[in-house]
Amino acid sequence: QVQLVESGGGLVQAGGSLQLSCAASGRTFSMYAMGWFRQAPGKEREFVAAISWSGASTLYADSVQDRFFISRVNAKNTVYLQMNSLKPEDTAVYYCAVDSIRTRRKPSTDLADFDSWGQGTQVSVSS
User: Fold this and answer.
1) Is 90 helix (H, G, I), strand (E, B) or coil?
2) Counting C-beta atoms within 10 Å of the first and last residue's C-beta, which end of the chain has fewer, N or C?
3) pLDDT digits (tens, 9 = 90+) for 39-71
4) Is 26 helix (H, G, I), strand (E, B) or coil?
5) Please, which pLDDT band fits residue 105 given cuts at 50, 70 and 90?
6) Could you give the CA distance from residue 64 to residue 17 in angstroms, rounded to a whole number?
7) Three-state DSSP class for 111?
């Protein structure tokens, strides 16, 4: 069983920045890819970004490409999401998740490939 705790959400004006953190415990963090997803009111949960277990490979949704950056520090069992140039449409609850497959070669964008989720942190962007 793995536990994930997100932090860093809040209210920010459009054009601003936030950094989300996700601290993991209970699994060999360094051997699993990690992902960030988000869910806006009335919408389905969607992929935002993912990073391979080594940190060498990253993937981003088109909507956040070149604005959001995912990173990890395995020594701290923590994954980060740096969010720049925020837009009102980025408003959502953001969740981190752990891949179900150890040392998957390429990070996945599919929610079904992630088997443990945090409780989420709210990000609100005002216009």
Assistant:
1) helix
2) N
3) 999 999 999 999 999 999 999 999 999 999 999
4) coil
5) confident
6) 13
7) helix
